[in-house]
Amino acid sequence: MLGPLAIDSTSRPPSLVMESLYTSLFPSSSSTKLLQSPKMAELKASITADAKLEMWSYALGFTPMAIVKCAIDLQIADVIDSHGGSMTLPSLSAALGCSQPVLRRIMRYLVHRRIFTHTASSYSQTPLSRLLIRGAADSMAALVLLESTPTMLAPWQRLSLRARQADGSPFEDEHGRDLWGHCDANPEHSKLLDDGMSCIAAASSAAVVEQCPEVFDGISSLVDVGGGDGTALRILVKAFPWIRGINFDLPHVVGVAPPCDGVEPVAGDMFVAVPKADAAFLMSVLHDWNDEECIAILRKCKEAIKEKVMIVEAVIGEEEEEDRDKYSDVRLALDMVMLAHTSGKERTLKEWEYVVKGAGFSRFTVKHIKAIPAVIEAYP
């Protein structure tokens, strides 16, 4: 735990670190004379300057997403990888068919953001750039491409209007239907969504398998509710081959999911009925829905299972708690994504208790892992 003067500068913006230092050293009860001293005036001016600099990062906040999307569109990481992991600017420019002066400026920014490295003669891959290689096992390119589409960006402009409404969704206000209806009517966007969600499913499933495999002990059949293209189940049945998997989602989703040994695709509506199995598995599903909808989904899961329901979702710290692990920023940002795109939210432990108990489960446990989500097990 941090003491009153121990400031974690790695997780707080510079202006906030400076302001915390200022207020801890000179609380409001300090003398007026001390606060008006030249050194205090200098410190206050420094805090203001840092705040202005930090605000520039918000004003230009779209830039990193846009340039990373550009790198994916140009397939910069793919091309460098295919040339042994390092290329000179002229050879990279020729391979991409790009203007060399323009590409140099783009690469300068990407190097500054540590996405590539640059020596005197060439650009090289980094762990970040390898995540932009399309089709790689742990690629996150599809997630960036999804969130940077005009379809997903436009609802953000309506967020202030959403704050003045009791309910609703900026996505639905913008596009005339909710995200799922929009995907049903637009197969291209549905594919982008499935691919983006597959990135999340791959990372989260791998973390669950590695850090708490015991949750699958004694489970011979598992229905993945809202399983998308089946990424999570493919990872799970490979790790636990005794499990028979059921990939359950809407018809237009499972209809294009790739086949997998040990996984049966089943089309349906989770608000109507869920296929029978020992356990149900819901990953990044319930955060898309409001409390009443979550309770309805969980009730259908409860009717279908013998043992338990496993929920792999973020657990947000209560406002009065310190939530300072390295994933907390992502969890809170995802909550804003839910606000812009769905009727749902990321939930605190108390909010999870409300929906789980509201669905009729007698008890639940929470396993925190070193990842964005936790593993919640709900028992009938």
Polypeptide structure, described:
A 7-stranded mixed beta sheet has the order 6-5-4-7-8-12-11, sandwiched between helices. It has 380 residues and is an alpha/beta fold. The protein folds into 3 domains: 14-59, no CATH class; 75-130, Orthogonal Bundle (Arc Repressor Mutant, subunit A), CATH 1.10.10.10; 203-379, Vaccinia Virus protein VP39 (Rossmann fold). The protein has helices at 14-25, 32-35, 38-59, 62-74, 76-82, 89-96, 100-112, 127-130, 141-147, 150-153, 159-163, 170-175, 179-185, 187-211, 231-239, 251-254, 291-304, 328-341, 349-358; strands at 86-87, 117-118, 123-124, 221-225, 244-249, 263-267, 277-283, 305-313, 315-316, 347-348, 363-368, 374-379. It contains 19 helices and 12 strands.
Task: Offer a quick outline of the entry.
The protein has 380 residues and is of the alpha/beta class. It has 19 helices and twelve strands. The chain has three domains: 14-59, no CATH class; 75-130, Arc Repressor Mutant, subunit A (Orthogonal Bundle), CATH 1.10.10; 203-379, Rossmann fold.
